[in-house]
Design a protein that fits this description.
The chain has 141 residues and is α+β, with helices and mostly antiparallel strands. It has six helices and three strands. Helix 2 packs across helix 5 and helix 3 packs across helix 4.
């Protein structure tokens, strides 16, 4: 468990340093990548995906809107909610972040490590599935 924790922390720290070149934080980069993948999300869905409290997400989105990365529009299905999407600047940033991601993985896993990477991903997918199964059964093993 300690090895996964250290690896996760080091990867996050390194990735954060890379995205900071563009004036972003790890959390803001995650929002941009989620919106790039999903196009439009409401604030509640973003908070859930980011595993952050809604007020924290609202403050982060306020800052992102102020610097022109996202735009908000009323949700036609729920007048209390806003839909979040990337602005043109945000879309351009998503392209840059995708390049950062490619460079990040190339630096960590060269072409010779493709099979090892696939095996590692498989292990993590198994762990996630087993934890989700435990969660569905109230943690009973």
């Amino acid at each position: 468990m300690e090895t996964m924790t250290v690896a996760s922390r080091k990867m996050r720290t390194y990735y954060n340093a890379q995205v900071s070149r563009y004036g972003l934080t790890f959390a803001r980069a995650r929002v941009i990548l989620l919106l790039s993948k999903n196009e439009v999300m409401n604030q509640s869905a973003l908070a859930c995906e980011l595993e952050l409290e809604k007020p924290t997400v609202v403050r982060m989105l306020d800052r992102m809107e102020a610097i022109g990365l996202i735009s908000r529009s009323p949700d036609p299905n729920d007048r209390r909610a806003n839909l979040i999407s990337l602005s043109e600047h945000g879309k351009a940033m998503a392209v840059k972040l995708d390049q950062v991601r490619v460079e990040f993985f190339d630096a960590l896993f060269g072409p010779a490590d493709t099979q090892k990477l696939a095996g590692g991903i498989s292990v993590f997918e198994t762990i996630i599935a087993r934890i989700e199964k435990l969660e569905a059964h109230d943690g009973d093993i």
